Amino acid sequence: MPTTLEPETEMGRVTTAAKIENLDDLVLAHHGAISSSEVRSIEVSDALVDTGCTVMGIPKRFIEQLGLNLKRTRPSLAMTGLTEARIFGTVRLTIDGRDCPLEVMEVPDECPVVIGQIPLEYMDFVVDLRQRKLIGNPAHNGEQMYEMM
């Protein structure tokens, strides 16, 4: 799933392809309670990479399609000020063969899927500012590595 740059009019905007799966469904499929074809998932070609965001944001329509349950609300600081964020969970996010489990924050339907800093850190991706795309962390020779320091 390659990472791409949007048209020149959106200078610096980095997007990536991503697969998002309902983790509860994956567990049920693993135990044989449902078939793998019943796992609810979506694939997007234009998830916005936003290192200024902490978590992963998913539009409400995709949350409904994935069948995610509301877990809690938390304060959220957005460009519009302090708001209440609705947190749903849990999904498996996959980008370029790397994956991570995480809860997601609901964003309005007019927003794209947003990939924030926590999933990027977990999957050991960094933003290459010159090429405006995600790359494996050069400090780890591009290979995924977990740090325990």
Describe the structure.
- With 149 residues, the chain is mainly beta.
- It has a single domain, classed as Cathepsin D, subunit A, domain 1 (Beta Barrel).
- The chain has three helices and ten strands, in the order E-E-H-E-E-H-E-E-E-E-H-E-E.
- The strands form two sheets. Strands 2-3-8-4-7-6 form a six-stranded mixed β-barrel. A two-stranded antiparallel sheet has the order 9-10.
- The longest helix is centred in the N-terminal third of the chain and has 8 residues.
- It is globular, with a radius of gyration of 16 Å.
- The N terminus is likely disordered.
Top keywords for this entry?
about 150 residues, mainly beta, Cathepsin D, subunit A, domain 1, two-stranded antiparallel sheet, 3 helices, globular, disordered N terminus
Report the sheet with the most strands, covering strand number, pairing sense and barrel closure.
6 strands, mixed, barrel
Tally the structural domains. 1
Relative helix content: 10-25%
Structural class comes to mainly beta
Along the chain, the helix and strand elements come as EEHEEHEEEEHEE
Counting copies of identical and different chains, the oligomeric state is single chain
Shape: globular
CATH class group: Mainly Beta
Fold-level CATH name:
Cathepsin D, subunit A, domain 1
Radius of gyration from the alpha-carbon trace, in angstroms: 16 Å
The helix count comes to: 3
A few lines on this structure:
This protein is mostly beta strands and 149 residues long. It has helices spanning 23-30, 60-66, 117-123, and strands spanning 3-5, 14-22, 41-49, 56-59, 69-78, 81-95, 98-107, 114-115, 125-128, 133-136.
